[in-house]
């Protein structure tokens, strides 16, 4: 069967790196062959910054907004116009570790987002109503200390990034809802850099399959967040080839676990690329011919590696993979099994494409690609992979699957 990549329409993705003085500049990077990080990848050409969101923007909380019920998720948005790696490693990681050690939280995750300025959205779930106030206090204390010690020096109130964000804003918010986020000139309002804000937590029930699907996504997001923070700590993800190689391997494992037929997976990856290509018409954000030119440099090693990963996931043998991927493969297999059960039990309810009705999906073959798209995308979001690079990886992985290395069967 042909599987589309569409979960639900969205423009969510990773953030730029304004701290570098450019918008995730992507010059040509030579492919150097396989490394300990996996096969090196030639980078997608040109320059691009992505929008970003895991939940969709939702209404702005006013001064009279009701506080979240004690024990529910707490959401803190930290506006930080620089690469979030230092914040994640020096602030959020020790904060979460301390809260977990003291039994104060039962879940957490983070995403990168762009609306009203680049920021990290931190989600913490207090373990009880009694723990909620202490979780909030420790969060505010840790974030304030970090912003004081290591403020972001870049500002996005003028120049390329501000213009770019407004282009994204015009694409994603063409209607009346943009009024929540605009200034007197009709441009996207920017929150103060190096600031934090407690906000409502508003899950995208329509995208993830209703309450049961959101609960599953939250469980998965915790694992994905832990994985990414650990990768930031142990891998040279500041090197673009390493970042893209890591992303490609995680995409291989997750997509290969969810969709086990070769033709089905190749069609899915094609449609995943096509979705992002169509999401930004007339912008040139997502390439085509240049992707094919870069593919030739990496094709042999990439195809061979994808073949090995596919075989391990198909055989249920994660131990054949490097330890970093083995744990991810085990998690993805459990995630898939839980999603299949929810579908079979009739617990997954998605919002229709036109937003007019709910659709209960009971066939796992239909539910799995709907969930795979946001799952895979949000891991790339956490890695700080741009939409351009993500679309590029989907394109080259599809080609690698259709054109396996000489002498190796797919």
UniProtKB/TrEMBL annotation:
Chain segments carrying region Disordered: 1-68
InterPro entries: Thiopep_bacteriocin_synth_dom (IPR023809)
Protein name: Thiopeptide-type bacteriocin biosynthesis domain-containing protein
Biased composition (Low complexity): 47-68
Domain Thiopeptide-type bacteriocin biosynthesis: 73-401
Superkingdom field: Bacteria
């Amino acid at each position: 069967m042909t599987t589309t990549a569409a979960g639900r329409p969205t423009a969510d993705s990773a953030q730029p790196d304004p701290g570098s003085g450019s918008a995730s500049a992507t010059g040509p990077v030579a492919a150097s062959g396989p490394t300990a990080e996996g096969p090196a990848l030639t980078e997608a050409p040109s320059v691009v910054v992505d929008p970003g969101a895991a939940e969709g923007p939702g209404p702005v909380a006013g001064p009279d907004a009701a506080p979240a019920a004690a024990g529910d998720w707490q959401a803190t948005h930290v506006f930080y116009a620089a690469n979030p790696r230092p914040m994640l490693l020096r602030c959020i990681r020790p904060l979460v570790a301390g809260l977990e050690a003291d039994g104060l939280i039962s879940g957490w995750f983070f995403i990168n987002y762009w609306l009203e300025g680049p920021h990290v959205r931190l989600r913490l779930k207090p373990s009880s109503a009694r723990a909620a106030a202490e979780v909030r206090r420790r969060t505010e204390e840790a974030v304030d200390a970090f912003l004081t010690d290591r403020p972001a020096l870049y500002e996005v109130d003028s120049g390329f990034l501000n213009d770019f964000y407004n282009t994204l804003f015009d694409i994603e918010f063409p209607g009346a809802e943009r009024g929540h986020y605009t200034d007197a000139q009709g441009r996207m309002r920017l929150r103060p850099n190096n600031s934090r804000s407690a906000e409502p937590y508003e899950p995208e029930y329509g995208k993830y399959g209703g309450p049961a699907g959101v609960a599953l996504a939250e469980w998965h997001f915790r694992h994905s967040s832990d994985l990414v923070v650990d990768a930031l700590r142990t891998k040279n993800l500041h090197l673009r080839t390493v970042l893209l190689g890591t992303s490609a391997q995680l995409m291989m494992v997750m997509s290969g676990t969810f969709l086990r037929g070769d033709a089905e997976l190749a069609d899915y990856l094609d449609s995943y690329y096509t979705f992002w290509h169509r999401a930004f018409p007339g912008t040139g954000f997502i390439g085509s011919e240049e992707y094919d030119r870069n593919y030739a440099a990496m094709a042999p090693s990439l195809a061979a590696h994808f073949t090995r990963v596919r075989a391990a996931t198909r055989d249920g043998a994660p131990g054949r993979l490097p330890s970093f991927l083995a744990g991810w493969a085990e998690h993805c297999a459990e995630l898939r099994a839980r999603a299949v059960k929810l579908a079979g039990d009739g617990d997954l309810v998605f919002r229709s494409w036109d937003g007019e009705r709910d659709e209960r999906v009971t066939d796992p073959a239909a539910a799995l690609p709907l969930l795979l798209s946001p799952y895979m995308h949000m891991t790339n979001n956490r890695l700080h992979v741009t939409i351009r690079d993500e679309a590029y990886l989907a394109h080259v992985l599809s080609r690698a699957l259709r054109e396996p290395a000489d002498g190796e069967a797919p």
